[in-house]
Structure formats: C-alpha cells, structure tokens
Amino acid sequence: MGHTSLDKIKALQKNPANVRNLCILAHVDHGKTTLADSLVASNGIISSRLAGKLRYLDSREDEQIRGITMKSSAISLHYASGEKDYLINLIDSPGHVDFSSEVSTAVRLCDGAIVIVDAVEGVCPQTQAVLRQAWLENIRPVLVINKIDRLIMELKLTSQEAYTHLQKILEQVNAVTGSLFTSKVLEDRAVKEERAEEDKEEGDIKPAECPGSEQVYDWSAGLEDSDDSQLYFSPDQGNVVFASAIDGWGFSIQQFAQIHSQRMGIRAEVLLKTLWGDFYLNAKAKKIMKGAHAKGKKPLFVQLVLDNIWSLYDAVVTRRDKEKIEKMMMSLGVKVMTRDSRHSDPKVLLSAICSQWLPVSQAVLFMVCDKLPSPLDMTSERIERLMSVGARRFHSLPLQTQELKTAFMQCSSDDTAPVIVFVSKMFMVDAKALPQNKQRPLTQEEMGQRRELARQRHTERLAAIQQTESGEGNAQSGSTTPATTPGQMQGLPLKAKPEEEEEKETFVAFARVYSGVVRRGQKVFVMGPKYDPAQGLACLPPVPHLACCTMDSLYLLMGRELEELEEVPSGNVLGIGGLEECVLKSATLSTSPALPPFIPLNFEATPIVRVAIEPKHPSEMPKLVRGMRLLNQADPCAEVLIQETGEHVLVTAGEVHLQRCLDDLRERFAKIEISASKPIIPFRETVIRPPKVDMVNEDLGKQQKVAVIHQVKESDTLHLDPSGLVTLTTPNRQATVGVRAIPLPEEVTLLLEGSADLIRTLEQAGQAQREGRTLDMSTWTLDALMVLKSRLEVLLQGRKWRNAVDRIWAFGPRRYGPNILLNSVEGYQRPSVWHCLEREKGEKEGGAKAEASAIRDFDNSVVSGFQLATLSGPMCEEPLMGVCFSVERWDMNFPTQRTHLDSVTEKDSNSLDASVSESPGEGAMAGASHGRLVDCYGPFSGQLIAAVKEACRHAFQAKPQRLMAAMYTCEIMATAEVLGRVYGVLGKREGRVLQEEMKEGTEMFIIKAVLPVAESFGFADEIRKRTSGLASPQLVFSHWEVISSDPSWVPTTEEEYLHFGEKADSANQALKYMNGVRRRKGLYVEEKIVEHGEKQRTLSKNK
Ligand SMILES: Nc1nc2c(ncn2[C@@H]2O[C@H](COP(=O)(O)OP(=O)(O)OP(=O)(O)O)[C@@H](O)[C@H]2O)c(=O)[nH]1
Ligand SMILES: [Mg+2]
C-alpha cells in the first residue's frame, strides 16, 4: 500500500460510517508508540523496516531522547478491508502519570481505544487509570497484549506456560473492567432512584412510566439486567490481539481459525469458539473435545497457535537453523530479501518473516474497524453526559438544546446541520511547519525556469571572476559577483534575522467535529465553561460567556506534518488554526447558541510540584511573562500563577512534567535563559496528643508537658494555664479571648479534606443567608452535606467533643480547610454552620435563634482571626491541618454609649475605621478608662482579629507541634537481584514499604511504598540508575502524613543525653524541613553557624 493521497483521505472523511476515531492507551512503556509505528508503516508513511525503531509519533526531541511520549499526537490512516475503505484517526497518548492529562484530552475526541498491556508486566497502575478514563468517557476499548516475544526470549516460558500466563493477564484486565461496570450500575441505580423520587415529588409522573413504583425495594441492584456481554475482553469475541509490536507480528484468533479450518477441514466458526479455552484436539477421532486441563492435554490455542510461534523463534533466533527456517518459510508462503536473511542480527530475519506472516497492523486495524464504533454509533447516554454540565439534568435543559441531541446522533454533514466542535487542547507548531508556509514541490516548468536562472548566474559569476583576475575595476566586481564578498556574506544573515523573529509559532487546536461541516473561515460561537444556553437563547447580545471567532485554517493531523484542508465533515478529528485569542485550553464551538459547553475534561493528576521561575536577565521579564502565558495555554495540566510575593510560579504534575515545561519555556515559549528555584515543597503544620514515650522509647512523665508549655512566653495580656488554655486580652482591654488547641482525630481531618468542595458550598450558602438571599442547592448537595454532618458526629465522640458538630463556628483556612473553630463560650448562642441547611430543608424552627447581643456583631472578627491563624502557622508559616481551636472564653467590656458597631464583614472591612474613632471607648478596665487610648491601638475589630489570631497561635504552640509532609505512593516493579538496591534507595529517602509481592508467573516483585514529596526529586532517576534501568517507579500524590519527630526537640532525659549526645545534632528530619521552609521564606532560622570556634582546623593536617 503506497502513500495514501490527500484526496483519498478527504473522500474517506465524508463517510462517517467508515471512520474510526481511536486512541492508544496503556501504562508507560508498554509499547503504544511502537505499535503506532507499525500502523503508520502500513500506510507507507514510514518504511516498515524502521517501524518500531523510529517511534514516528514521538516527534519532539526530548521524547526521542528519554524514550517516553509526552504529548498525544494524531495521524490519519487508510485501511482497506475487503471492499470497504476505512479512515482511521489514530491518537497516540503518553503513559507516564505526569502526562495523564494528555490522555484525558485524547480520550474525549475518540469513540474507541486500543488498550495495550505488556505481557510480562500485566496490569499496572496506569493501565487501570486509562481503563477508568475510557470508561468515564463512555468509549469502547479493545485489547492488545503486547511484547509476547518477552515471554519467549526473556522469561523463557514454554508455550503451555505462556498460555496460562496470558489467561491470567486477561483475567486481570477483565477484573478491572468488571469493577468499573459494577460501580457504574450501582451509581446508575442511585441516580435513577433519586430521579424517581424527585419526579414523584413533582407529581407529574404517570404510574405506567414508573414500573418500579409498586416495588418496595429492588434487591437485585440491577446487575442481572444489565448487559455486560460486550464488556469483557475475550479472544473469541474478537476484541483481543496478541502481538509483539517490536517484531512486527500480531494476530487475533480469527486469523488462525481461518488458516486451520482450511488445513484441517473444521468449520471456522467451530474453531473460533474453541481456539481459546479448555479445548483439545482428539487426533484419532478428529474431534475437538472439552476438558484439556483435566485430561492433561494441550489446549488448542497452544497446539495450533503458540507452538507455531515458539518454534519459529526457536529456529530463527535461538538455533539459527537455516534448513528449518527455509522449510518454515516455504510452508508459510513467505519470501524475504537476501539482505534480511543474511543479516547478522537474527531479529531482522524474524521480523521480516513475521511481518509478512502475521502483520500486526492487519490484525489490529481489522479488529479496530470490526469492533470499535463509528461516529454514527454515538450512544445517547454519552451525548447526554457530555451536555449535562455542572450535574444539571439533561431534561432540565431548554428544548432547543435537547433537540441538538439528534444532531449528535445523526452526525450529519448537511449544510443545514448545526456545527458542533470540541477543542480538547491547544498545541504549538512552528509557523514554518504550517502547510501554507511550506515549500510545495516544484512543477516541471518551475524547475526548468530555476535551472535556467542558476545557469545564468553561474556564467555571470564566471565572467566576474575572470574580470577580477585580469585586474580590471575592483569596485565594479563587488556589484556583479553575487554573494561572494565577505561584506555581503555578513549582510545576508542580518537581513534574514528579523524575518525569523517575525515567524512566530502558532497555536493549533486539537479538535473533533461532532456535527455539521466545518469550513475554512467559518464563524462560530465559543461557549465558555459557564455559558448557559438558556441565557444565550433569551438574551440579546452581548450574552455572558459567549464569544465569536473565525476558524482561519483547518488541518489534517498527520503526526509530524499538517495538511491544509478546506472543509472537514462531521465525525472527524482535525486541527484548527486561528483560535488562540478565544480558546485558552479547551472549548466548545458551535453555530448554534443552544449548545451548552461540554462537561470539563476529567484529569487524573493533581499538579503538586511548584517552582518559582526567574529570567536570568531581569530585563527579560516581559518575555518570561508572555512565555508562561503561552505555556499555560499549551499544556492541559500545568498551572501558571503569580504569588502574593510577586514570584512567578509554575505548578506541574511531577518531576518529568516539570522538566518538559521548563524545556518548553526555554526553547519555544519565552526563548530566554531562565532559572527555576528548587521545587517548593508544601508542608502542613499540626498539633498532636502529647507523646507517651520519649525519643529513646522511655516512658514520659509530666516533664514533657512542662517543657512544651515553657515555649509560650507569658506577658501582662497573655496568660497560659497548665491545661493549655491561652487567654489573651486586646491592647485596649475591651475583649478577652480564651482559646485551646485540640488535635482533630485523623479520620476527621481526612474527611474534611476530602469534602472541601462541599464545605465551600456550605459556606456560600451561609454567606447568602446572612445577606438575606437563598442559594438553591440541588438535593444531591443537601444530602451530601447531611451525610457529612452525621459522619462528623460519628467520628467526634467522647466527652471532649460533646455536641461539637453543632458548635462548629467555622472551617479554615479560606473557610473550607481541614481545621475547625469551635464555639465553647458559655452562654454564647450563635447559629451553627449547618444552620442554612435546616432552612433549606424548611425546618425553620430547628436553627438556633440569632442572639441580638452586642458581641454577636464581632462574630466575624473572631472568624477572621481564626482564618489568619490557620492560613500560616507558627512553625514555618505553612497552613495548618487537623487542628481544632476551641474558644472557651470571650468577654467583652463595652463602653456604655457605643453608637456604631464596627463589626467587620468580609466585604466592607475598610469602612470600619471611621466608626471607631467616632466612638470614644470608655472601657471599665484599668488603663483603658481614657477614651483616646482606644485610637492608638487602631479599630477595635482589628484588634480583636489580631487577638484571636495570636491566641490561636499561642494555643497551637502550647501543644506538641508537628510538621506534616505530602506523600507520594509509588509502585516499583523489580527483579529479585535488584530488590535490595531498591530498598536501599527507598530507605535513604525516608520511604516506607507498604507491601511487597511477587507477580504471578514472573520473577518480578511489586513493591508498594510511600515516599515524602520532599525526598522525591531525582528518585525515579536514582532507582533507574541503581537497578540498571530495570525498575522505574511512577509517583502519584496520595496524602498528608505527620512527621513523627518533633522539630523543637532537645534532649531532656538522661537516656536521651546518652543516646543523642548533648548537641543532639543527628539529623532531625522535621527540623531540617522546617528550617528549609523558613530560610526560603526569609524567616529567622535558629542555627549555630560556628559550633566550636577554637577547634576548627583542617583535619588532614593534624593527623
Ligand atoms: N520486547 C519487546 N519490546 C517492545 C515491544 N514493543 C515495544 N517494546 C519496547 O518497549 C519500549 C517502550 O516502547 P514505546 O512504544 O515507546 O512505549 P510507549 O507505550 O509508547 O511508552 P510511553 O509513550 O512513554 O508511555 C521500547 O524500548 C520498545 O522497543 C515488544 O513487542 N517486545
Ligand atoms: Mg509512547
């Protein structure tokens, strides 16, 4: 098959029934790009000898160097099966966790996916992740079990063992799909029930429409009724291919069924059903029988399929038996070139034979066209999901919007069909690489003209040289000899440079047409993520969140190349130029304002690694800012922000991602020298219950408590009682607060952290209520909040926490963090944070009545003080986590004729200054009796905020403080030989092994471990180096963990002195982290620089 012409592809695009949009998904290094190479080679785009070596779709330099894919890229291929011609829009995606956002962008545009699993490694963490992503987007997968050659050459399994091994892998993959399916069915059921309930409440449902209404409870969980036959991977279903992408072969059992049915005279259908499974061939009876395993017979799959491949490998690679090879080639009907058969590397011959006998591209492309849906087969479920943004029900959308569903289903390319396009990411291309700027091949005529011109120039030059040689007129010669004098040589690049700079890189949108025909120069609406079609249909322009833009150019994506197109019909993947002004990362485009924006892409990775970036030369700051803006647009996952401190910060998903972003900034976006800070590692501060043992595991008495308490310095306004209650009076002595810090149980912290979004909604509802509005919350949110409340009640048990949940005053920092402010003030009644829920539920009586007391007006100041205290803790100004501040005392001493109350509300905190100065405080307490005194301490509410903040900080310090570190989990696969070294590296980096198990059927161990983010930089590299590339871990953020050592610890007991010495300067990890953060933030670090002045000397001299 030659290079498919552009016209052919244009024609194919018009027939959506024969278009397949699909992506290749797998764990890192399972062979996606290698397989893609074989498919690309089948179209003659690259030579088939180079397939697997070129990794054509890894077009970036760093991808080639590192050997991993970092960006997903697309290519359109032609495949002819029988009489049918198919167009395959193939997207290769990266497997590394750091780039999982690229997978999300790819999956959205596809209808199907090829999931690859390494035959040796089996199902890995990313395999599960990509299966889940495919599932969430409702796209159908097919399976390729790749690298089967490794079973032969590396693991040296027999064909029988390999069969058992393959069965296990298939089971593993199906187990993942199965669990996804079950959870989906259960979820569906929950949604259905909720809807039924809502509909019942609305009372507009006819009994006939609600078949389950008579049933009291449906125990079946719906699992039995759901059709899952399509779901599982099974070779006899035709959705599994066994392959070795590197050696160029692959097959599905259909192929073997056909081969053997001719040879053995058994019907192909029978073979198809029995080739995979517990069947064997009874040669005497010429029958296929069941029960191979029980009878100790060779299963058909081993006998008819694997044995052939095993003996081929044996003959070609292991024994290099020329005669046998000849014979085999004869029987397979394969011919190879002499240079292949004489090649010193037997693999060359092997892949030459295999790629003719069982070409992997045929097997995979056939399966894809046969099993994966075309754009016409889009399910209505998927369409409804795509259009139901923000958990809105599809049926609640405007009618015109609902009607658009038919446009999706029809996938029509009529002129009347509305255009619907989704852009899933923006990528950058060199303007020079755009087809309109590229040199097109010259026609015969043009070539002739050029030749003529060159000839002329040549003769002129010759004449000129002759002139100069004969010494006539030096000045003249300069003008006639083109481009030979040094002066002109220098002139040339000067002229070229500005042009080069003008040639910027441009953004191309990675998109798909869902309906209608996209034409070059067409104008479309761009729906912002918050756009509401109801508004768009009702309002006159300007409609909020709706913009208009022109699609300047359309491209066919061909891996490294782009081809220009005039129009793209529905159902195809394409590139669109000219959208960079109106699309940031992704967007929904349409000609119909009734279309809602598609639901946002679901990203699996959370950006966690932050670095501050600076240009090497400060004057280049504007370039950096522009570059970072471009990077933000071009990367689905990277975040770019300017911190309060003015630093430009880049947040990435991991180390490899960071490296790629920095390279991109340097070379493409900013094109300047930049320097990046060391990664900024986040920490959290917390308090714990007093430890029972000291550092040498000795029982602790009271002394520790005393030592801790002495860290707080008392003054005349600050008082600390031995139980840890801190009482603080404002400078004007009008208010006194007493605060105690209590560690929250771990489960509560976890729960609060996981419910941040819910709590934020709760806070918004509370805010709305205070302002006299109501916030409409869906029943789902209300229920979730009630569940949260009751779970908190269950977790906060014991005397200390009596009624605690109802007394919650606020969450913090930022009003939704994992810390609690508790109202334990005797006699102070205020509505709890849950109050707004009760109102929403219509139980008005339930809420506590707002107390009309004067101190109520200052309620907000206390909350603000708490927010400030939790935002940055006393250890190193990092946010707090898992701390409860219980306010046990709040006394106010008001001057009697206060007229204005200067409470602080979130919105107008500025307006309070005036009110205070007008109201001379006549505090009854000594020292504050003079009215003017108040002024010199500033506004009262400000003082109260500061007092609460300080009280919280001191209360925090009165407890044993600890740092919390962000932790990664990682799974490392290693062989027994390198296991020890893996443990060594983990140990050195404070990692902890959670689990170690042997992978069935292999000699690999899987180690699950956690590792502090702070210790993770260079971890993957180190592991790879120490194990000679055998183990390569991927790090995924998992949770926060308390570091057990106390940063402020000094030896106090006899044993501790003995054990650690007087200085106790053996590494205190927590102290090291804390000082690191303090130094970065420019805070005071308590450190001895010179330990023993007089003893410092060069050791070697005094030996
Ligand atoms: N033995 C063997 N090695 C293979 C096979 N297929 C791919 N490889 C090797 O596996 C390594 C990774 O291949 P890639 O195609 O880059 O893997 P990938 O899935 O694209 O990796 P990422 O894109 O980084 O996730 C390369 O060294 C390939 O040569 C195979 O069938 N057999
Ligand atoms: Mg790849």
TrEMBL record:
One GO BP: cytosolic ribosome assembly
Superkingdom, natural source: Eukaryota
Region described as Disordered: 193-212, 438-457, 466-500, 901-924
Keyword GTP-binding: yes
Gene3D superfamilies: 3.30.230.10, 3.30.70.240, Elongation Factor G (Translational Gtpase), domain 3, P-loop containing nucleotide triphosphate hydrolases, Translation factors, Yeast translation eEF2 (G' domain)
Keywords annotated in UniProt: GTP-binding, Hydrolase, Nucleotide-binding, Ribosome biogenesis
GO cellular component: cytosol; ribonucleoprotein complex
UniProt cross-references to NCBIfam families, sorted A to Z: small_GTP
Name of the protein described by the UniProt record: Elongation factor-like 1
Organism annotation: Oncorhynchus mykiss
Designated gene of the protein: LOC110515557
